[in-house]
Amino acid sequence: MAWSVNGIGVGDKLALGRAWVLAPASLDLPRRQLQAQQIAPEIARFHAAVGRIDQEFTDLREALGQEPAAEVRAFLDLQAHVLRDPILIDETVARIESESCNAEWALIQQLAEVTAQFDAIDDPYLRERKADVQQLVERILKSMQGVGDLSTTLEQTAQSEGALPWILVAKDIAPADMLLLRHHQFAGFATDSGSPTSHTAILARSLGLPAVVGMNSLHGLVEQGEEIVLDAAAGVVMGSLDEELRAHYSDQQASQQLAMERLKRLRGIEAKTLDGERVLLQANLDLPEDAAAALEAGCDGVGLFRSEFLFMNRADAPSEDEQAAAYGSVVRAMAGRPVTIRTLDSGADKTVAALAAGRSEPTNPALALRAIRLCLAEPELFLTQLRAILRVSAEGPVRIMVPLVSGPSEIILARRMIQTAMQQLEAKGTAFDRRIAVGAMIEVPSAAIAIDGLLAHIDFASLGTNDLIQYTLAIDRTDSEVAHLYEPLHPAVLRLIRDVIRACDKSGTPISLCGEMAGEAELCRLLLGLGLRQFSMHPVELLRVKQEVLRTRASDLIKPVARLLRLPDPKKIRSGLEQLNGQ
Ligand code: PEP
Ligand code: MG
Question: Closest Cα to atom 6, ligand 1: which residue?
Fold first, then answer.
């Protein structure tokens, strides 16, 4: 009998594959039912893992020499004691036998019993040792699985062979980890937490891979290696497929691939509506190597280069030369097409170790010292980046885009820093484009509402709808519990977009949209009807949006879209939009 778990789909593709369950550094691992002949090897596997950890502590004790500090000795003694504790070790073995279950599961159940005993202890020192026991159990679990960390997973999945590709199933994947996964062949991702516009989901989309996020309970249910189907359009993951279902999904997957192949014919065609309106379709890049896919899709340049990903998975910040090399490679690849480099947008769900050090964890990361606020607080880091961007502006058309601008003061200060960076380069005789365009992301409601005050200070603007929706609707875009309330079609959001486009058009300021909305073909007519003529999206989405542009008469959209914006309710707007898309 097939099982299914619902979540929120990212993209509309599907993947058929084997689940690779990424063990988190937590105690949440699935139960496996064993056959009688599997029990003895399972117990041996458990003992071997305990032995390995025991050996690790013996080695550590030896390395510390004769006289380790008292607290270190106490710690090592406790670990040695726990590793021989019959309640934890013998009872785990007994449970594997009596319940025919995997060792990980049995151990986790035993841990619950042990920790309950700790909770009952009056002595606060001993009660605190509960955490040590938990950590020890985690070490055993990781040792048993060999999949405790991402790098082991990557090695193992790369080495494994099989008819079906892997689908990664995890409790959560941090954006930095997602970057590491880019070079590995996963067919899709499913996570218990997250929402469709978290940066993890954005990175999955940029890989053209289907994902389902906010699944809550999948991670504990699916078994390692189990065949599953991940249907992003329906936002569902299914397992225990029968022949009929398997055939149905492989047919569907084949026809999706065929449709993608057909779309490739549009690559060389200019994006123009039926009434001759040219629409710029630019690419969002997360790393320089994405430029190839963007060109392959026929992009009109780069509308958003998320420079912060260069700063992740490392302890230090990249040097000016390293950044200039990365930005320069994109500028050269784009061969004269404009490249919009967004200055470091760290913070919220994008952690940059070099900047986090020495700072306390913010209570509300999305509202904290992030993006331009952080850059202004770290002038040396900001100047280094600005010099790197300016240097590559000598090689082709480059624009500087400032994230999370809330009003004129930040852009005025950013411009001052750009001036300083220019003076520093001039002093060294380094070439750059003195007239480089400087723009703002419009992603904070205050910037959208008071856009008129910003226009005098910027050369272009780009609507960052991912954050604009988050801040307008007070929905944390990374929180799966409120993901269902994240609504791009909320009239408040659409009216803000409309007003920003209008104000920019009136003042002759180029306006683009680079949030996830730009890449959703179903929203293309709505945005065209609001007057948008510059879209920036993941390269994988570009041809579908182009197809939509090519079949649309822009002048026919103005009145119906204006009517949609007068509707009070997103549901009504959605059904009106479906009608408009069907015409
Ligand atoms: C946005 O907020 O819409 C955006 C494009 O930037 P990011 O998703 O990186 O915050
Ligand atoms: Mg943003």
Answer: 464
Task: Report the C-alpha gap between 23 and 200 in whole angstroms.
Answer: 17
Residue 191 has which token pair? Answer: 């996570």
565: alpha, beta or left, given left = phi > 0 and alpha = psi -120 to 50? alpha
Low-confidence ranges of the chain (pLDDT < 50): 25, 147-148
Query: Is 184 among the catalytic positions?
Result: no
DSSP 3-state helix, strand, coil percentages of the chain (rounded to 5)? 55, 15, 30
Ligand 1: nearest atom to the Cα of 284: 5
Whole-angstrom distance, CA of residue 530 vs CA of residue 565: 10
Euclidean distance between CA atoms 367 and 378, whole angstroms = 18
- Measured between alpha carbons, how far is 129 from 583 in angstroms, rounded to an integer? 67
- Say whether 432 sits in a helix, a strand or coil: coil
- Return the structure tokens found at 505: 């058009």
Name the residue type at position 97. Answer: E
Mutate to test the pocket of ligand 1, among 345, 351, 401, 513 (most ligand atoms within 8 A of CB): 345
Q: Is 524 a catalytic residue?
A: no
Q: How many CB atoms lie within 10 A of CB 513?
A: 29
Minimum-distance ligand 1 atom for the alpha carbon of 467: 2
**Model confidence over 521-544: pLDDT tens digits?**
999 999 999 999 999 999 999 999
The span from the CA of 324 to the CA of 333, in Å, is 14
Spell out the domains of the chain, with CATH numbers in brackets.
Answer: 3-19+162-260 (3.50.30.10), 36-145 (1.10.274.10), 279-517 (3.20.20.60)
Residues 401 and 367: beta-carbon distance below 8 Å: no
Does the pTM surpass 0.85? The reply is: no
Q: Which DSSP string corresponds to 405-449? A: --SHHHHHHHHHHHHHHHHHHHHHT----TT-EEEEEE-SHHHHH
